[in-house]
């Protein structure tokens, strides 16, 4: 078969491992030929391709990023998007398309498969781990590893200087990275978007930690929100100019650090981990997951299971429907959050 | 409640994280008091204890090993073993025992619970990942990480010198570490005890890899075996003095390296990773798993679910019966091994 | 002898390794007794001590931070400071004091030794590496390692998204961390406080890098400054409210990222590494340096070489005068900066 | 100018960083053209070349190994070797040759320069750090890092099981890796080839360590030797068949582990680190050193400083004579070994 492949959305570790597995199995077991599209859906719309054969994927298993490039282009944002996608596939005589991406990229894929009959299968990747029906997404374990290592390092500074250290981690709409890295890093408080936090409560945890002679580490997802009243309360002193939630949240870690300092009188420092969470060599778990997803995706292609997405369930790779997996976001369950609450304070 | 805790068998990363979670939740949520037993079952038989309170577990989350010590003592190897266990529990007025261990340690626990009414629950740990009914055991992810990092490093030597590099990893009776680290490390051939290997086939993979201009890495579990005939064939030149399988297997990596060199004429080097696979800081995944196992184990104690073992199924922590989980070993399924065979050669 | 020890200034990896070496050699070879002062000079002024014996330092070699705590208290900032220092030493009948710190901590030590006859020796530590007369200070190599690892991770994001990535590293008044990590991380441009930078030139390098099909990484020390005219030029659009240089510089990485984006039209992201640069396990080099400094400091005490500081010169540990080592800062030599300029753009 | 480059001897981390620096500066500042020789001196003898331009070295800074390949071929081992070297240089119209290697590779270079007028300069690399007149060689810091990380991991196993752990590290003829990693890893005893060891003394250290409630780690260079009498004593039980020193030393770590177990009755395990010490990404220090050596080597070429070798002295890159740097080996000074002896036992 002739198969197109693209990687879309923010980059994350493990994308190349997916590509390598697809190509290795496709070429060796099925005799497939591959066409890589440059920069996600944009490359399909513009018909920009990248060579994708065994030579191209050699040595890429431990490399972060994606040899195909990526973008956040949504092919359905333009009226003739679906037609242009179909046109490009036809021009290259492609029998199928494998789409590796997060919710947005795969959401477009779901609609193209369902509404426009594009013969495609999906592979879920995002450091945010917010795609339902799969235990984990490619990239998440690596991001948790980077964040945990950073938290490990910050403990010594917190303790040597009796400071509060606030660590802002990524998590656009779900607190998975915060929850896992906070727990693994021994944070004294973890704040996630699923559970608006009470600054007063956070300050109590901080002070209780100081009484236990250790210094606190507070891990906060960059999309976590204080309970509503408090935002109004502090809008005066802290510049929170916009009603747009995204603008408001930018810098929530810095904001919280200042609030803690103001309320408790304890010196506080904020670290924003930023893009180091999505770069670099994938963890062994992510290489394993990415590789198996790639192997199963090419199988799905050969079975014509259009509109399906590879998923991890326990230790098995299964398939779910893209439409279902992109219809909602997987967020942290309240009972799980409560479970780890025993370590707060 | 008054709860005893022990860690048995070979040490592995994450044991302290289990202890910390048990104690944090037990003390804070249930008001429990804990007694740690020194060096696994041996400490119960000899009534040797170690203080185990919140102070003792503080700061231990990222530390490898076990603050309780460990041993391979089997309490049922001596006739009055069960009575002595019950005696020690009575002497300390313990209401329950939490046993953290691998197949042997937990197997003894299963019989003590089933046959002698010892009120205990189990937590599975072993870098070998060979305990059934749980997706993973504590320590496995870290061991895979160490082995993968080593394989990553060996690639450059293989390629610069056009050598075959054989890497012997642990795996007493199951090939999990070899399979996962070999796949994550981009090995060109992975040999596991579940699938006796054919040296001729291995040499063909090695030579095919050289033709592709790269140098091969062969990952082999220390319990992997060549197909039967070959052992006899080479007993003459290689000192394989004993018919005891354990003795015979000691050094299978070295043996394979020499065989490859002899048959293909390619220079070969063997690296035996050894104990670095079971030491040091646990990976974030292991800290997460260990912590959740600990939290759930103390819940099981308070629910009087004697003879149960915490288990990971997908992302949920469940409970299974110790007797069932220790009645067999979880080995690598042939279909999984076949799945990754696409990367051989 | 009876010897007091303190660690002052910002914490950094390797402090515990210095303490361990002092105590091991002092106790075993000289029969010394030690008193640790809590939180740097503050503990001496307030007479707050911490036990410091072989038991206290055991296992601390790989631990970041300082078991003594630290502070930025300057004992000479108060009129009777020197008297209080002498009073505390007399009260504990201490024959000597070992002061481990950066320029400020050691500067106070120099004056106490020279002007007030305090019998002390110094050990230089600071991630900034800005103390003269020693090749390196304790903590620097670890900080460079953390920054380099972060830059390694950011390359993949830069390339996958064709973005400019600006990395702000520490370096209060010298560009050593920026220079070493930028070179080791393969940055395309390194900006240090010793060399005011020209934003136009930076943008040219950025664009030349894109033409070479790779995406640029810009490493900037948090104290680096653009050439003077430009600050005025852009004060209008970017809020730079204060004339105080420290305030102005806060966020120079963010400022530069926006400038590059504005001028070149290329998407840009800034990562501020912050406190992870000064925490966590020391690198092997720092453990080696810290240990040898500790061993030589206790020798200096027994030789009564008051007012001296341990220093690294090549592979030898020597002694220099504290007064001289704290009279100026060691900055990056223009010829060295020029040497690495071949990699810019 | 037209410049040939080769990398010889065992591979080590940082070789590509040297190549990258040579090419970047040569092309950009001097307008040079480069020819890479495949597999060290062998490629010169056989006239086998590899493209070496800016494109070839791009992205190689963090990669271990060498893109040129390496071998241990000695060009002077064959009678017409010098002539063939000169012939190859003439055939490619090369004005100079840069030789990157250890003692053997550079020793041949020294003689070719001195006796045969080959216009060449040298760059010292070897994880063994045994080349005189330079503080460090390329690759050493990375090897120490790998060994230290392994020792860090082994501490937990030693302590959990109260075992002696023997770690055999590389060091063909000098104990530098053992000394630095042993000190940085907190070993309780370090055995190097420069100081024949007394097994009785080692056992005393081991037992004293157990009395202090910790378990011992013994670091031994693979070329370390027991004092003479002992070898004879134990030849009976341990197969030490050959009088050839190299054969005898193979496995000295295993031998020592068994001796300790036999004499003290304490369980002992040996880990042989092997080739992971010479593979993988170079440390930041090695990237810095390698890069600066490369920049200075191409300067030396343009100054016609034939027969010179780049060297590190303090923080400065200097030049020394290849003939002098290869006339002897740099071994560990007795006073330095004595200095760290305070940590033994």
Structural account:
Four copies of one chain form a homotetramer. The first copy, chain A, has 14 helices and eleven strands. Chain A is α/β, with parallel strands linked by helices and 345 residues long. Chain A has two domains: 2-139 and 282-325, Rossmann fold; 143-278, Phosphofructokinase domain (Rossmann fold, 3-Layer(aba) Sandwich). In chain A, a hairpin with a 2-residue loop joins strand 10 (308-313) and strand 11 (316-321). In chain A, helix 6 crosses helix 7 and helix 8 (199-211) crosses helix 11 (252-264). Mean pLDDT of chain A is 92; it is low at 232-249. The interface between C and D is large, with 38 and 38 residues.
Would you spell out the secondary-structure blueprint of this structure?
Four copies of one chain form a homotetramer.
Chain A: E1 2-7, H1 15-30, E2 33-37, H2 41-46, E3 49-51, H3 54-57, H4 81-91, E4 96-101, H5 103-116, E5 120-124, H6 140-161, E6 164-169, H7 176-184, E7 189-191, H8 199-211, E8 217-221, H9 228-235, H10 245-249, H11 252-264, E9 268-272, H12 284-302, E10 308-313, E11 316-321, H13 322-325, H14 334-340
Parallel strand pairs in A: 1-2, 1-4, 4-5, 5-10, 6-8, 6-9, 7-8
Antiparallel strand pairs in A: 2-3, 10-11
Helix pairs in contact in A: 1-12, 6-7, 8-11
Core attributes:
homotetramer; 345 residues; alpha/beta; Rossmann fold; 2 domains; seven-stranded mixed sheet; four-stranded parallel sheet; 11 strands; 16% strand; elongated; ATP binding (chains A, B, C, D)
């Amino acid at each position: 078969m002739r198969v197109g492949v693209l990687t879309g959305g923010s980059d994350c570790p493990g994308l190349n491992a997916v590509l390598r597995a697809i190509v290795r199995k496709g070429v060796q077991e099925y005799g497939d030929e591959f066409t890589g599209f440059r920069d996600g859906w944009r490359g399909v719309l513009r018909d920009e391709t990248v060579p994708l054969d065994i030579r191209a994927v050699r040595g890429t298993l431990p490399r972060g990023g994606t040899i195909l490039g990526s973008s956040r282009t949504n092919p359905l944002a333009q009226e003739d998007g679906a037609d242009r996608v179909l046109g490009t596939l036809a021009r290259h005589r492609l029998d199928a398309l494998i789409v590796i991406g997060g919710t947005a990229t795969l959401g477009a894929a779901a609609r193209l498969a369902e509404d426009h009959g594009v013969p495609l299968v999906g592979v879920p990747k995002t450091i945010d781990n917010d795609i339902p029906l799969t235990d984990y997404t490619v990239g998440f374990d690596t991001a948790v590893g980077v964040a945990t290592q950073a938290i490990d390092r910050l403990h010594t500074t917190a303790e040597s200087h009796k400071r509060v250290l606030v660590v802002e981690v990524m998590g656009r709409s779900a607190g998975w990275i915060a929850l896992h890295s906070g727990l693994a890093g021994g944070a004294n408080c973890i704040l996630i978007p699923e559970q608006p936090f009470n600054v007063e409560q956070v300050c109590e945890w901080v002070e209780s930690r100081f009484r236990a002679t250790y210094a606190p580490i507070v891990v906060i997802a960059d999309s976590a929100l204080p309970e509503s009243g408090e935002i109004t309360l502090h809008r005066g002193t802290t510049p929170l100019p916009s009603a747009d939630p995204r603008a408001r949240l930018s810098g929530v870690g810095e904001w919280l650090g200042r609030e803690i300092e103001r309320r408790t009188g304890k010196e506080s420092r904020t670290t924003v981990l930023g893009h180091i969470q999505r770069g670099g060599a994938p963890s062994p778990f992510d290489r394993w997951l990415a590789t198996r997803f790639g192997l199963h995706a090419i199988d799905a292609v050969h079975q014509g299971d259009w509109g399906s997405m590879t998923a991890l369930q326990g230790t098995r790779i299964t398939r779910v429907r893209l439409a279902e997996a992109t219809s909602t976001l997987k967020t942290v369950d309240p009972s799980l959050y409560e479970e780890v609450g025993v370590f707060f304070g």
